[in-house]
Amino acid sequence: MTDALTQLRAMQSADLPVHGGRTLAYVYDSGLPDIDRIGREAVAAYAGSNGLDPTAFPSLLRMETEVVGTAADLLDAPETVVGTVTSGGTESVLLAVQTARDSRPGIERPRMVLPATAHAAFHKAAHYFGVEPVLVPVGPDFRADPAAMAAAMDDRTVLVVASAPSYAHGVVDPVTAIAAAAAERGIRCHVDACIGGWVLPYAARLGRDVPAWTFAVEGVTSISVDLHKYAYAPKGTSILLHRTPELRRPQFFASAAWPGYTMLNSTMQSTKSGGPLAGAWAVMRSLGDAGYERLARDVFEAVDLIRAGIGKMPEIDVVSTPDSTLIALTTDGSCDPFTVCDEMAARGWYVQPQMSYAGSPATIHVSVSAATRPHVEELLEALGKAVAAAVATGPVAVDPGVAAFIAELDPLALSDDDFDGLLLAAGLIGAYGREGLALPQRMAEVNAMLDLATPAMREALLVAFLDRLTRPTRS
Ligand SMILES: Cc1ncc(COP(=O)(O)O)c(C=O)c1O
């Protein structure tokens, strides 16, 4: 009988590779095997430790305060700054919104002002915490429009958000103007630097042109920065920083209203593995400031080379000049982005399809890591071939009748059987049970149809898909 670890390795071989610099979304790879090993060993060493009680596991408390201190230095924070290590960007965002809401208990129907490009984690926070999102259209370069943001702020606004950078387009919002408008009205301003937090400070140090976005900007009250992205730590860590302890206080939760231990939490999780924090601490200790600067140099060299290569491909272009390490590519109509994604996958590269939304065209998302630097030429060669193949196939043609049908679908009017039928027609589930669940090799047709659906329909269809995907395996 094969042992469990051998089985795991065999199962994992079907997943996207997390090393090698060819997976250009979901993973952030330093390309340094020793760093990965140190991170993994630290996670394993602390897998059973419980971050629930810092007095019981003081080494975790020490790691947390040191990690937050390093972040504070990097983000130009004042002496008063405080921070918490969370499980990821979404948890940092959720806590920023909950904290802002609970700091204004007198506001009955709280709102937050978001650029339309803010990460979906803010919509999740809106849903969880009953904070109405006020979505403000962005400018033609996909950067937030500070005047429009200011105009959207009112007496009910508890939070204003800017991204550094936005995930979908890789651009930094004009934080200085947005934070000033928020401060003038006494409203908190959160900068979502989940992506850029650990790489943009080094970009600035390397002499690149980066708009101001850190605590050096007056009016910025909190910042989220993920360690499992450009701090190249194992998955499961982000930091939420607040400018002062007073700003953070509503984030804490305590309950002595039961006969057990007094529950005292700074995050959404209560019991939490010490593994991710230990992994992040060990990676940060090992790389140090100089190590991160070297990795930033590598990743920005890769970004510049990729952009130069794309400049020679007439069929594709960046949607906006990227400020960071994320690139969004659009096509000129001779091919479609979804087919290019499939063609890249066929060549061993994962790039992520992004649907059109609110004036933003469908795009190809590329998150560049330091590990991609040595492979940029192969990447550009693959991209050139993928584009040529996509041009040869031509854009996915959806029958106009089907297109009209999809555009008019109302998720609220559909039954479970209707969803089964749609998922079957899209090739996302087979005719019967779990055996039929296998993603098609090529996703372009499915993505092109999803792109025609309303966002609400996309959500409903994908939720129905996830529901069927996650039915238990019974013996
Ligand atoms: C700007 C931004 N904010 C928040 C998040 C959510 O982070 P996570 O996936 O770690 O929960 C992401 C993830 O990509 C992001 O890019």
TrEMBL record:
Pfam families: Pyridoxal_deC. The keyword Manganese does not apply. The modification N6-(pyridoxal phosphate)lysine is found at K229. Its cofactor is pyridoxal 5'-phosphate. Keywords: Aminotransferase, Lyase, Pyridoxal phosphate, Transferase. GO terms for molecular function: aromatic-L-amino-acid decarboxylase activity; pyridoxal phosphate binding; transaminase activity. It comes from the Bacteria. Coiled coil: none annotated. Gene3D superfamilies: Aspartate Aminotransferase, domain 1 (3.90.1150.10), Type I PLP-dependent aspartate aminotransferase-like (Major domain) (3.40.640.10). GO terms for biological process: carboxylic acid metabolic process. PANTHER family: PTHR42735, SPHINGOSINE-1-PHOSPHATE LYASE 1. Belongs to the group II decarboxylase family. Sphingosine-1-phosphate lyase subfamily. This is Aspartate aminotransferase family protein. It comes from Nocardioides turkmenicus.
